[in-house]
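Troubleshooting: if your tokenizer reports a length mismatch, compare your output against this known-good record of 378 residues.
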Amino acid sequence: MKIRTITAGFHLELPLDEGRISRIAEFVHSARRAFEERGYPVQTVRVTTQPWEEYFTSKAQIVSLVRELEDLFKTYAVDYFNVGTTRNPRLIPIIYDLIQDTSKLFCTVPIADHTRIDHEAAKRTAAVMKRLSTIRPDGFSNLRFAALFNSGPGGAFFPAAYHRGPESFAIGTENSDLVLKAFSQARDIERAGRVLNKILMEEFNKIEEIASHISESQGIPFEGIDVSIAPSVQPDESIAFAFEELGLGKFGDVGTLAIAKIITDTIRDLEVSKCGYCGLMLPILEDYGLAMRNIDGAFNLTDLLLYSSVCGTGLDTIPLPGDTSEEKLYALLLDIASISIKLDKPLSARLMPVPGKRPGEMTDYDFEYFANTKIMNI
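Known-good structure output:
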């Protein structure tokens, strides 16, 4: 298991105070050292703020501000920063400019709450996803943007994380190797949950102990661990291959939904401080086995929506044809929103149209946390 992210949140005030940025950066670096001294590799350190619409005065001002933030976070070696959400549909088109002019910034748009869908926000989100796909030839810029459904503040994982309240921090891990270990031991679905619980509790108790010590020594509250199962591009750590250890066939076969539910039920019963999604993540481009089974044609978008009904984050890092229309993206967002409202659960959508690519063609990303796969049909 690795620490995917140490995410610190703070309330941004203007005029921008470089000393404040320096202090929050030093905190995440000290937290990184604490974990690495205990043998846990840390992939990234990240910082979030409250929703950017709360420090917005004009398009020129916010574009200039995020450029300044990007320069400061580069100076202080923070890997990524997130300026959170906007609930004002009229501001959504500006997200194109925010992402176009930066390389470390993430942001989101909430489309559904517990009872209703914001159709205007969904339409404008589809439009901005389409525009973001044109910034780079591989459509990569949509990695830094997502639609949110029923998602609150205080989580660890990007793009969804945003901040409220006093300074705090949260932990997200890359842990699909533990699922593979557990299911290799269990060998059948009846024992899978018990074995997984034991293995995860052993590791998350250690993570919680380290984080609690950091909180006490630094005086910054610990929000908790997003105990979501986050996958890996390493073949021997794949979440898809973990499913296949239980003898019900390949990922995507009948039985996949049942295994997904067992994982989600298990992690939500873990007795540690939790925050964020706390679900099973199935990002197609971020897991070697998922990428391979997608090449095999083992599942489609409808299957992934079905799995979302019992697991984690919705549709994440989904490679789509470059000519996918705004109307199709809008319709897909409505499907995800409907599941989120009906089940009253947090979901997200990170959809990645790839310019010039058609269904069945291969992606050609050069990114260490992506496994290339086929473009999915929509």
